[in-house]
Amino acid sequence: MSVPQGSTNFNVAYFASLTNRINAALSCAELQSIVDNEFPSIQGVKDSITAQIALIAPILALLTAPAANPTAIVTWLSTFITSFLTPYVVPYTTMAAQQTALLAQIAAIEAAVTSAQAKFPSCTFPLPPIT
Fold first, then answer.
1. Considering the domain boundaries, does residue 96 fall inside one?
2. Is residue 39 part of a domain?
3. What is the per-residue pLDDT for 5?
4. What's the burial of 129, exposed, middle or buried (CB within 10 Å: 0-12/13-18/19+)?
5. DSSP notation for 16-83
6. Does position 7 have pLDDT exceeding 80, yes or no?
7. What pLDDT digit, counting tens, does each position of 73-124 carry?
8. pLDDT digits over 34-75, tens only?
9. Is 16 within a domain?
10. Among 83, 81, 18, 67, which Cα is nearest to 45's?
11. DSSP character for 5?
């Protein structure tokens, strides 16, 4: 069994390996076993990225200082934003890019499963939704 995804950085090699395993499946049962074992990990990756973005969202709202405050307060707020808050937002850029890449990998995995199912007579089973 593979290392569960979702608690570490997004691993593109995992998806390439999974696609190869799907394409190499020798039976419908093997294909379904791969799907049943691996789709929860994919859901974990997606949930982790979504959770990280949600945690950072309130901080993003603080990146613009209010313009109506006196100069000293605006200067303090600007320093607070650039020196304290901005470093905490750096993961947002990485996670947003990973989220986009993950969605493309999910689509490719789902297409690979559908294609692999066609190799086996009467091989139909629903793909678990990744929400």
1. yes
2. yes
3. 47
4. exposed
5. HHHHHHHHT--SHHHHHHHHHHHHHHHHHHHHHHHHHHHHHHHHHGGGS--TTS-HHHHHHHHHHIII
6. no
7. 787 787 778 767 787 788 888 888 889 999 999 999 999 999 999 999 899 9
8. 999 999 989 988 898 888 888 777 667 667 666 676 887 787
9. yes
10. 18
11. S
Residue 49 burial (C-beta neighbours within 10 Å; 0-12, 13-18, 19+) = buried
Question: Which pLDDT score is estimated for 64?
Answer: 66
Number of domains forming the structure of the chain: 1
125: tokens are 């089973």
Task: Answer whether residue 32 shows pLDDT above 90.
Answer: yes
Domain boundaries, position 84? 12-117
- Number of other residues whose CB lies within 10 A of the CB of residue 123: 15
> CA-to-CA distance for 50 and 94, rounded, in angstroms?
12
Which phi-psi region, left, alpha or beta, contains residue 6 (left: φ > 0; alpha: ψ -120 to 50)?
left
Residue 127 lies in a domain: no
**Looking at residues 1-10, what average pLDDT do you find?**
53
Distance CA 120, CA 25 (A): 10
